[in-house]
Amino acid sequence: MRIHFSYQLIVSVLIASISVISCKKDDVDVIDPAVKNSVSIQFENRVGDQKLVLGTPAYKNAAGEPFALTTLNYFISNISLKKEDGTVQKFPNQYFLVRQADAASQVITLKDVPSGNYSEMSFMVGVDSAKSVSPVSERVGALDVTGYGTDGMYWSWNSGYIFLKIEGTSTAVPATVSASQSFAMHVGGYGGGWNGSAKTVNNLRTVTVPMTTKATVRGNIAPEIHLFVDALTIFNGPNKISLATTNSVHMPAAATPIADNYKTMFQVDHVHNDKQ
Amino acid sequence: MNMRMNLKRGLGGAGLVLGLMACHSTDQEAQPEQLFQQPANFPQPIYALDQNRPTVAGVALGKALFYDGILSRDGSISCAECHNQAYAFTHHQHDVSHGIDNQVGTRNALPIQNLAWASDFFWDGGVHSLDLVPIAPIENPVEMDEKTTNVISKLRASARYPSLFKAAFGSDEINGPRFLQALSQFMLTMVSGNSRYDKWVRKEPGGTLTDDEQAGLTAFRTKCSGCHTGELFTDNRFRNNGLFIQGSKDEGRAHVTELPEDRYTFKVPSLRNVEKTLPYMHDGRFYSLEAVLDHYAENVQRTENLDPLLMQTDKSGQVRLGIALTADEKRQIIAFLKTLTDDQFLRDPRFAVQ
User: Fold this and answer.
1) Best residue in A134, A137, A148, A197 to probe B by mutation, most B CBs within 10 Å?
2) Does the distance separating the beta carbons of B126 and A158 come in below 8 Å?
3) Are B117 and B267 in contact (CB under 8 A)?
4) Which tens digit of pLDDT belongs to each residue from B241-276?
5) How many CB atoms lie within 10 A of CB B4?
6) Bridge partners of residue A188, in order along the sequence
7) Dihedral pair phi/psi, residue A118, rounded to 5°
8) What Rg, from alpha-carbon coordinates, does chain B have?
9) Nearest-CA distance from A156 to chain B in Å?
10) CB within 8 Å: B132 and A200
């Protein structure tokens, strides 16, 4: 008797719960952080309102100087996503090198992102100080100091990564400075302090960008965040940079105004939340 | 005996056993108990040996790389070109080093010895880990003028290296970290700690110093050891020893830190094997130890950031630049410095070109 009663109860509870679940599935959006999916971030480099294509002649900066680009590379790291409730999801120990010459490098993918509605993203441009002094055995993937070839994203004489490198040509560069009228700006400097040594210039910059359309990670939604990256801001940001006078930057102190400029060059254009 | 005990502590039992086994099967000449020695009179090493402990095969690979021109653009320049064993691995006859296409740099090559005890590398300390050093000469356009990425590709394509990497690291994968760690393993074993001075300190056979040499040591300890400190003869710091600013007007440490207080400061060099590492100073301006001593005694310049130890105020309140040295003291200090020559190191077949 007692046994029979319990059996009935269990069955009815089961039926009830199944109907509740299926009802939720159809009509209510359950956000279960245990359910994960990936988020991809696309860095679309531009020059003002033009597509950035290496070698294209005569983009123009605020100083009115025409220029063409041969290289634009930058490191992205320490990405974090903030939910609408203010909680922050961090993605430590992931380093990406975005290279204009390599389309595949312009889309980076974060794996295992808990379901949630994310309304803000932040990331560092560069390689944080802890990683900048880590043992070589930990420097793999984008951080392999022997892996950059002619890109040379590492200062061998100053043991530090080049966070952002922009190179090109401009008729504004005096031929007396560079016969080929080329310019090169290399921004690095993680702040020193290694082995108790003095603090040096720190050009690590953290960028925070809001997303008006939230990235809604679900079991069946892997959002794509699409960033516009306006390389013109490297010259036209808060600090106005003229290629006639600033055309060869290879030391951290001189690079600080450039870092302050590119900190403002990223914005989220749109977010795709397509169901898979 | 003392050294042996110390060595075991430094190596750890497992490493020693492993070394012995590897030695037995591959290389009859290698002496595993000498892979990395910590001389009894030396402090604890700074290099994190537990992360990259020299092994017989790792050191053999590092040595092969060190002596191979494949690391340079046109195959002509190996590390050993500028780091010659007979001169404690410096570039003899060259005040500043000559590299590829006979191009000239601005700095005098530093010796490769006792690097496990160094905290920063190069005259300006620009590199903070031994493992990261090789990239600088390889990619320097006036030294080896090659891309490290390309070196790795050339090694992968070579007939010789895959098996050497396999022996050293367990698989024939050739990658950047392994390449750098192998070079470090070889360089770490280049320990110079068997000079007559060392034997004297450790009271070992052959450890005798003449009266002049002992007087020189006493003078050195009062006049020089403020900077050339301890058994490595350096405090591993950056100082301005009052050289006249000339030539390339090298700003030294400030080149890296961009701090005004570092202008014209350079790494205090170790004085081990100094008899053999001429010419002297970051730009190789002095060709003899006599010239160095004359500099300290008579020629110290009051340039920006001159080290306070070289600016003494005497009783009458007069500032005296440099170090007071009599002719006898100079002679005795030089006699003492020559006792730091370690012939065993300079002729050690383990470090010599095959």
Assistant:
1) A197
2) yes
3) no
4) 999 998 889 999 999 999 999 999 999 999 999 999
5) 11
6) A162
7) -100, 130
8) 21
9) 5
10) no
> Could A135 and B51 be called an inter-chain contact, meaning their C-beta atoms sit closer than 8 Å?
yes
Strand bridging mode A182-188 / A248-249: parallel
Cα dihedral A257, A159, A145, B148 sign: positive
Q: Which domains does chain B have, with CATH numbers?
A: 1-32 (no CATH), 35-191 (1.10.760.10), 196-345 (1.10.760.10)
Answer whether A24's CB lies under 8 Å from A32's CB. no
State whether residue B102 sits within 8 Å of chain A by CB.
no
Q: How far is Cα B324 from Cα B309, in angstroms, rounded to an integer?
A: 12
How far apart (Å, rounded) are the C-alpha atoms in residues A168 and A53?
Answer: 12
Rounded to the nearest integer, the mean pLDDT of chain A is: 90
Measuring CA to CA, which residue among B57, B49, B94 is closest to residue B191?
B49
Q: Which two tokens stand for residue A171?
A: 């008729």
Q: Per this entry, what is the length of chain B?
A: 354
For residues B225-252, b (16+ Cβ closer than 10 Å) or e, as one string?
A: ebbbeebbbbebbbbbbbbeeeeeebbb
* Look-up of token digits 């808060």: A238
CA separation for the pair B82, A252 (Å, rounded): 30
Q: What gap in Å lies between CA B335 and CA A93, rounded to an integer?
A: 54
Find tokens 């005990």 and name the residue: B5
- Among A137, A192, A195, the residue with its CB nearest the CB of B257 is A192
Report whether A7 contacts A191 (CB < 8 A). no
Separation between Cα atoms, residue B186 and residue B81, nearest integer Å: 16
The per-residue pLDDT for range A242-253, each reduced to its tens digit, is: 999 999 999 999
Q: What 8-state DSSP symbol labels residue B47? A: S
Rounded to whole angstroms, the Cα distance separating A225 from A79 reads: 13
**How much of chain B exceeds pLDDT 90, in percent?**
79
pLDDT band at B317 (very low <50, low <70, confident <90, very high): confident
Q: How many CA atoms lie within 13 A of B76 on its CB side?
A: 12
Alpha-carbon distance of B39 to B18, in angstroms, equals 21
* Cis status of the peptide bond prior to B279, with omega within 30 of 0: yes
What is d(CA A138, CA A14) in angstroms, rounded to the nearest whole number? 51
- Sign of torsion over alpha carbons A6, A7, A11, A12: negative
pTM value? Answer: 0.88
Distance CA B192, CA B88 (A): 9
Q: Which residues, other chains included, contact B335 with Cβ-Cβ below 8 Å and sequence gap of 6+?
A: B210, B212, B213, B216
- Reported ipTM: the value is 0.83
Q: Give the tokens for residue B185.
A: 């393993």
